[in-house]
Amino acid sequence: MGEEPVTYDVRFSGTSGLAGTVRDGDGGWPVEGALIVVTDVRGEVPATVKSDHEGAFSVPELPAGDLTVAVDASGRRPTALPVQISGPGVTRVEVRLLSGAQVQGVAHRTAARGLRDELQPGRPGRHRGHRRHPARGARHPGRPGRPTAARRLTVR
C-alpha cells in the first residue's frame, strides 16, 4: 500500500448499556409497545427495542459516546433526546410522551377539483370548498350540477 497512511474505522463492542422507562406525559402511566431507536453521531442505528407492559426497555452493550434516543408510540407525539454513554455501567433515562392529535372524518370535493384546494385555509373565496359565483358574488359549495366525491381523511 505504499507509504500512504490507511484509515480504518474501528468499532469496539461496548460494556455499557442503556435502560429506561417510557411514560405518558399527561398522567405518568407506562406506555407499552413504544418503539425506541438508538442512533449514534453518524446516523447508524446500533439498537432498536420496544417497551414492555411496564414501559421499561433495555439496550445492552452500547459503545461509549453521544447517542440519540428516539421514541414513538401510537397516539402520542414522537420525541428524541440526547444521551451520553460515558463508560461501563448502565445509563438510565425516563421518556415522557405527550398525547398526539388524531383527526378522522370525510372531506368532500367536486369532481373537477382536487382535495388539496379544499384543505388550504386562507384562500379567499375557496376556503373549505366554497367558490364565489361569478355573476352573483354569492358563495355556494362547488359548482352547481357537478357531482361530489367523498374522500376519507385521516391525520395522525
From TrEMBL:
Basic residues bias spans: 124-143
Disordered: annotated span: 108-156
Feature: compositional bias, Low complexity: 145-156
Membrane spanning stretches: none
Entries under InterPro entries matching the protein: Carb-bd-like_fold
Source organism of this protein record: Streptomyces lincolnensis
Coiled-coil intervals: none
Recorded GO MF terms: carbohydrate binding
UniProt-recorded name of the protein: Major facilitator superfamily permease
One family name in Pfam for this protein: CarboxypepD_reg
